[in-house]
Amino acid sequence: MNRDFEKATETYSDNQIQVLEGLEAVRKRPGMYIGTTSVKGLHHLIYEIVDNSIDEALAGCCDDIRVYICKDGSIKVEDDGRGVPSGINEKLGLPTLEVIFATLHAGGKFGSGGYAIAGGLHGVGASVVNALSKRLEAVNCRDGKMYTIAFEYGKVVEPLKYVGNTDRHGLTVKFWPDETIFETIEFDKDIIRNRLREQAFLNGGVKLSLFDEREENLTPEIFCYEGGIKSFVEYLNAKKGAEVIHKDVIYFCGSKGTSIVEVAMQYNDTYNETLLSFANNMHTIEGGTHETGFKSALTKVFNDYGKKYGIIKGDEKFMGEDTREGITTVISVKLEDAQFESQTKAKLGNSEIRTLVEGLVGEKLAEYLEENPSTAKAILEKAISAARAREAARKARELTRRKGLLESSMLPDKLADCNERRMEYTELYIVEGDSAGGTAKDGRDSQFQAVLPLRGKILNVEKARLDRIYSSIQIVPIILALGTGIGEEFDLSKLRYGKIIIMADADVDGAHIKTLILTFFFRHMRPLIEKGHIYAAMPPLYRVYKGKQQYYAFSDDERDKYIALLGGVNVSAERYKGLGEMDKDQLWETTMDPEKRILKRVTVEDALEADATFSLLMGDKVEPRREFIERNAKLAVNIDV
Question: What are the DSSP E strand ranges found in 358-426?
């Protein structure tokens, strides 16, 4: 022990202390600033620049924001705001535009009066984008003058230059992400579109336009909603294909000092809750004090109203989950000193916002229910139904426990478990059908791979409450095998397998089964998806062979490539109709061998889109589902969440 300590002390000297100057820290540890260098992190660069333009809109100085996906691999964002002050920063002796893009924690958002409310709290957005780009160009129009500046890898290569007078005003930023930093530099139009639409809802009246110069049609998609978050709620319910149980969106707005709160809500006929919260236009995906205040007020108002009119008897009372079944809510708060847990702004921490939201919703919702008795009756009836279902689920859970069906020590009869007990080294294959399940059991590596066969299509949980889930012969074995419990009892620390891999046939039926299983995980075990434990196996579509030479193809293009590689004469291309057609060696080689297989990690990059997609695919409305499948028919085999 002492020798190890002495050796470590020798190697840990003054020379090991690194001082990262300028933007080097960002390039050295990009995850600290944008969360990840995956596709999500790549698109976060766009958000940082757009958010600065949105801050101009919040200040009442910007109405039009344009985003261009350029042919040359860059992104261009331009706005009609005030532009950046064009003088010299006294403290640093550098042009202000250079300071903003080349210095961390520099900006007009630190109480200096530049912005009262801003999403870009930390003042690192523009400089982080610059640091993680191989080139960034800015055109600044302010006070009738136009200036340009350019950077490469965060360093000035073309100093600030005055290029002439102009009648334009605003800032244009164009950047090329650094391919040595990011896993991919291919921008996804859908991801950008969703973000711009969201920002347009949150800032009623501001126009955001998306141009994709990679396409022949250069007509922009324009997002502008005068109804603000009320329109947002209507959009969410329409996207779900859900029937609303009251026509009007309930909307409240209030303020205290410089803090502003907006709440919009509407109930639909589904069993699921959609609650989206934002602070200074940042989507707080982990919630925070504004969500806590809303939930607390909602439950109290429902209980007070129910007792006042005899809807609730004796000691009965609504639980929070009862009052939120089928609700679609958007909460947007704007405040001067927003306290987020990280640069990615996942959770709001301001305690005073809870008080403000709770007071506003408590007062205004109580008034609304009194003034709209028919709507109040419809909403309360839904809450009563939810409370009864909750009680039925409790009884079903206790019954299954008494029978020993949900004891953590019990494992499903059909589970072929693995020998390894350390969760991080184990895998569970959930396999469609007994035939494929048997092959998987024979072909697996039993040291670390477990197999659970499922017979038939599992319960569609989008249309079922918990009491039915606890009696499902397909779902209970999954719950038992994983060991975590579900819903409010879910405990990630009890997870028995590090990877849960859904293995279904590469056809439409297989895609449907995969979606049903994913819907269950999404609704009742969502942390498994959020923490990266859920995967989809990718079995091959073809075996291409000639004599003893053979290849496995995962697409038609790959099949054609292998046919050409084998000479094209006397080559056979066998189309697999299902996993059961493979023998154990083929299944291992193509789908289960960690050295050769292809797995797709299931992610919830955008909870809003995922929630709407599940509601659409698994809901009661046939026509919207048919339209979705027709639009995405080619993607059905490889569906991603």
Answer: none
